[in-house]
């Protein structure tokens, strides 16, 4: 039986998916991102917790991890939902910037880090939303600057997964906000167009965190995708 497994993004705890899952009847397991500084170690720890047949739903960093799991363990993954994603590795400049940002966060503290995340990850129309900013502040405090630094190090070393996209045969849904400046539309569309069975959805006016900005819309796309995956699974049996 298929089971939905969700993977949060950078500085996000498992509660980041609560608004989406509240609009769905399907059960889901939300795994915390392992607190290690190695991308490969993250993948290994996630795989150890996966059911035999999973539909992986990853946002941001979680989407990079979900992609890696599907690439390395294709028999375990029956569907992929990638929210705010890219298959590319960091450029040397981007990797170096992660080190600087981690050092800045350690110096300035969690409140400043949370404000920076809200200002850069939310769409311009939602950046002043007090509830969204409070959620980001709560998650930042729950993760802490030490975990942030570890995860930035892991992201800086992650591999480029572009060449492996053609080998991912399960259904793939890519969701990207049109106001996402971290993983722009072109990055997500390239993933959806390169995998053999991909679908791309652009959410108008949404930033890098659709699970917080438009959870009902994300839930609707998820329900449709899960129904399709269940139909394919039934046909294969």
From TrEMBL:
Top-level division of the source organism's lineage: Bacteria
GO CC terms of this entry: membrane
A Pfam match: Abhydrolase_1
Keyword check for Hydrolase: yes
InterPro entries per record: AB_hydrolase_1, AB_hydrolase_fold, AB_hydrolase_sf
EC number annotated for this UniProt entry: 3.7.1.9
Gene3D superfamilies recorded: alpha/beta hydrolase
Signal peptide (UniProt feature, chain positions): none
Top EC class of this enzyme: hydrolase
Keywords carried by this UniProt record: Hydrolase
One GO MF term attached to the UniProt entry: 2-hydroxymuconate-semialdehyde hydrolase activity
Domain annotation AB hydrolase-1: ranges: 35-213
Name used for this protein in its record: 2-hydroxymuconate semialdehyde hydrolase
Organism ancestry: Bacteria, Pseudomonadati, Pseudomonadota, Alphaproteobacteria, Rhodobacterales
Gene that specifies this protein: xylF
